[in-house]
Amino acid sequence: MSEPAQVRWVTILVAWAKALEGEARAGGDAEGEARVGAAFRRLRAFSMHDSPGFIHGFARTAMPQGERWRADAVAMLAELRGRPR
Asked: Which of 4, 10, 28, 65 has a CA between 20 and 30 Å from the CA of residue 55?
């Protein structure tokens, strides 16, 4: 997979994970937060190993590009599939 494609897919996964992390935190779901944390570690390890480029959302202080992380992930996926936002 090309580096730009890797960046796009990992960015989608990170945005989705950020959405799940927020939901788990809001619901007091410590187990859910731990699972999302494990997913972040795997995504980060992939990014560090393959170095595809900048992935928006890895920073703890990162904010969604739109209103919400879930909306970002859905919009990016729709864009990949050739659908309008």
From this structure: 28
